[in-house]
Amino acid sequence: MSELVVNPGVLPVGPQEKKSASWWGVLCLVATEASLFAYLLFSYYYYDVQLTRAWRPSAPPPLHLAAPNTVLLLLSSVVVWWGERALKKGKPGRCLIALVVGFLMGVGFVLIQLKEWASKHDSLQKDLYGSIYFTTTGFHMAHVIAGLIALLFVIVWLGLGYFDEKRSAAVSNAAIYWHFVDAVWLTVFFTFYVTPYLW
Description:
With 199 residues, the chain is mostly helical. It is built from five helices and no strands. It has helices at residues 21-50, 66-88, 92-119, 128-159, 169-198. Helix 1 packs parallel to helix 5 (169-198), helix 3 (92-119) runs antiparallel to helix 4 and helix 4 packs antiparallel against helix 5. The longest helix has 32 residues, at 128-159. Residues 1-15 have low confidence and may be disordered.
């Protein structure tokens, strides 16, 4: 029976536990971008607590576009996760299909969000609420587009056969960023669409 020899002070790391430098880079990017959204959402809650006069629209925002759009984005994250998992199991064809579907769902989210923006009576310059709403959702839209570009690149590279179960770091990095975009939208949705119904 062979024994595992370990250098003192060094823990053995299996192949699945090693993380690439790009993985750590994406995590640092996500942490930085998360702080940006935290500041933007903090400004909303700060004004909501500090201002004595009504500064939000008198009627809560309609949910007929935002709620289904939220479900669409969350489902896209599930599909991308499923694709990443399929690649790690040696099924690049399934991964390609899943990433294409996730990409198209992300495009659908963008189109619905643009339609909702067009239906708003507020604007970026109109008042404080409009400024915070359009700045926050606009920054989120920019991140969605960046995530779509990342997904498009890995879709093309996957189609060219660059990735398999042993070479999947780029797909994992794009998936992490996409999940981050979805998580941020949940906080944005809760802040701008749910809290007006709560108080």
